[in-house]
């Protein structure tokens, strides 16, 4: 078994709402803290005589502003605000526990394995973690109120998150509306809507945005461009068949995708966007829910003719036949492979799995026999899906003939506290309570000349 499978989960599961799916939500939002982790003990704020002591106003508040308040502010998706001293002190011990375990901010990616330079990386630095830990261990002193930094502007609920970096999207495509019932089985909604794109463009960034009311019931929402005339339904892998290209993938908690300027993820003229949305009812009816996707384009100098093509693919890297079953109270490791016949650059990696997945790893086996771990997630959390975008200077360059290896660890025992029912057999499937094993990987297709050129450029740097 993988070491990541120690009983590390903190959320207590409760079966309060009907159905197994509710369990996922409870795991994500029920968040009953370990006892003693929240404090209401009286405390008199005081100025700390020792100027080197860690204080809230000087040392902790700036970390919270930068890394936590996006969600932990009124109207944000976090369960409580972390803005004032009083807010934060109450949660001090729990904050310490979760930042030390790297569960908060919610960005599950191992800090000491594989490539560490990622774009839009939410992880706290080691220094920030020690500052918070120290502050809690020292009894959470408030410090001098005059040290408190001014409050930064926070985005409105429902705003595009990538707008902070790129401004408002150049194009917004809205899915047709759908009413999600209060109670029922998982549902799939697959509307096709005109994109409005009139010339081929290259995409810079994409953010799929569920509505504020609908974000808790939107398990995933994939999107592809299909020729406008096509009536096609997405196929089993979410692909739209001939003439279609993938726009994006979204799963609970994901923010978006970013595409480097030396590559083109194409937005074809005269296309429709075909959505593939997976809703799961969670106790409250949502009338006319409407999900949308925001697209930012590269400037006119970045054209499909002058750039290598980048594609986002679902790499169905499960073992052998592509099928597997996890026995009740059992564990399983699966491994799958994909060989690239041309040189490629791996731009991003997004592991996917559900409630029994606990860890995932991406490796590469080079044609010369070397094997390297590119990325690893040892503390998988089904509530948060991220596209880990490698910094352009380190995005792995693979020669033709390289093989990527996807390894997934599953735990169907009661030690996995996201597990709704350890007595079930769990097979591969689409429902939230089934399992999946694939990864979404964005790949720039290179030729030998481009591959050599990129290698030389990097060697110079
Ligand atoms: C992207 C949004 C987001 C960010 C950023 C974020 N959180 Fe959270 N946080 C959540 C959500 C949502 C929950 C509820 C549990 C879950 O979904 O994982 C949560 C839960 C928590 C909890 C547990 C609350 C409870 O009552 O159990 C603590 C403590 C916490 N966050 C602290 C932090 C701290 C400290 C930071 C910054 C260092 C941070 N969070 C950053 C969204 C966020």
Annotate the secondary structure layout.
Layout: H1 19-30, H2 56-67, H3 85-90, H4 92-100, E1 118-119, H5 126-137, H6 163-166, E2 171-174, E3 178-180, E4 187-189, E5 192-194, E6 201-209, E7 218-227, E8 245-248, E9 257-258, E10 263-264, E11 266-267, E12 271-279, E13 286-289, E14 292-297, E15 308-315, E16 325-326, E17 331-339, E18 344-351, E19 357-365, E20 371-377, E21 388-390, E22 397-398, E23 403-411, E24 426-427, E25 439-445, H7 448-460
Parallel strand pairs: 10-15
Antiparallel strand pairs: 1-21, 2-14, 3-13, 4-12, 5-12, 6-9, 6-11, 6-14, 7-8, 7-12, 15-25, 16-24, 17-23, 18-21, 18-22, 18-25, 19-20, 19-23
Helix pairs in contact: 2-5, 4-5
Bound molecules: heme C (HEC).
Q: Describe it for me?
A:
This protein is α+β, with helices and mostly antiparallel strands and 461 residues long. The chain has 3 domains: 33-147, no CATH class; 157-294, Jelly Rolls, CATH 2.60.120.230; 307-461, Jelly Rolls. The chain is 15% helix and 28% strand. Strands 1, 10, 15, 18, 21, 22 and 25 form a 7-stranded mixed β-sheet that branches. Strands 2, 6, 9, 11 and 14 form a 5-stranded antiparallel β-sheet that branches. Strands 4, 5, 7, 8 and 12 form a 5-stranded antiparallel β-sheet that branches. Strand 19 and strand 20 form a beta hairpin. Helix 2 crosses helix 5 and helix 4 (92-100) runs antiparallel to helix 5 (126-137). It is globular. The two termini are 40 Å apart. Residues 1-36 have low confidence and may be disordered. Bound molecules: heme C. Heme C (HEC) binds next to helix 1 and helix 4.
